[in-house]
Amino acid sequence: MKALSGFYYVYCEGETYQCRARGNFRKRGLTPLVGDHVVFQADNVKEGYVLDLLPRKNTLVRPPIANVDLALLVFSAVEPDFSANLADRFLVAIELEDVTPVICISKLDLADEARKAEIADYQAVYEEAGYQVLLTNTEIDKKTVLDVIAGKIAVIAGQSGVGKSTLLNTLNPDLDIETGVISFVLGRGKHTTRHVELMTIGSGFIADTPGFSSIEMDELTTENLQFCFPEIDRRRGECKFRGCIHENEPKCAVKTSVANGEIAAFRYEHYIQILTEVKNKKERY
């Protein structure tokens, strides 16, 4: 559930045990991560030992956490304004790790009618692509979010100031997480999250992540980027050329779908932006 100052806090059957790791972990080059399924022994809740790590299905670097089922990506309708470009970058980073993303757009009650209509348009595009989109007011629909997280290990991510801590406090008032205020000069919230920890939310677990607005995507290539856009991935088999990356190639089914309005122009534009960054990075190396 938590790793802090050399201690590992293991949750088992409703109890949390404070453990140390056996010395052979270091020899084997292993470090227990939050989210790991482990074998442990403990005579009491204060003196336990982690004996072994079970195989991981995935590992995130930031935050360092294993076995993540779902990422709740929180964006706000206003303060800060919703950015589809940022949303698409978060989605790519999460798709790359084979984690299921759920988009949550908060603060809808603070938006004017024009912004609400804009958000509804974005919702339609993302749902058509295959994503689940939750729209929440400052007072959230608690049951919907609890149902999404039920029985899963989840992370919550998004820019600072979008309401992640407020959302977690609403889902579990016992958490009492410090909430940051928006800095209107920078347009970013103050960073309030300190360490990685799984928190109990209903029948699931969720980890808060430090607020950040840029994502490192070192594993991205020109070949695997298309898999991170579901609507592009679905059409790539229809392109004339097998290695098509949907940029300048002739008879590209993806570009045809964009021209026909079947793929949203802004999604394709962001795909090309990220593709260009990946190619430039490759050339630099």
UniProtKB/TrEMBL annotation:
EngC GTPase domain location: 66-213
Pfam families xrefs: RsgA_GTPase, RsgA_N
Enzyme class at the top of the EC tree: hydrolase
Main location per the UniProt record: cytoplasm
A GO CC term assigned to this protein in UniProt: cytoplasm
GO molecular function, one term: metal ion binding
InterPro entries from the UniProt entry: G_CP_dom, NA-bd_OB-fold, P-loop_NTPase, Ribosome_biogen_GTPase_RsgA, RsgA_GTPase_dom, RsgA_N
Residue span(s) of domain CP-type G: 57-215
CDD domains membership: S1_YloQ_GTPase, YjeQ_EngC
Role this protein plays: One of several proteins that assist in the late maturation steps of the functional core of the 30S ribosomal subunit. Helps release RbfA from mature subunits. May play a role in the assembly of ribosomal proteins into the subunit. Circularly permuted GTPase that catalyzes slow GTP hydrolysis, GTPase activity is stimulated by the 30S ribosomal subunit.
Family: Belongs to the TRAFAC class YlqF/YawG GTPase family. RsgA subfamily.
Name the record gives this protein: Small ribosomal subunit biogenesis GTPase RsgA
Organism for this UniProt entry: Listeria rocourtiae
Gene that encodes the chain: rsgA
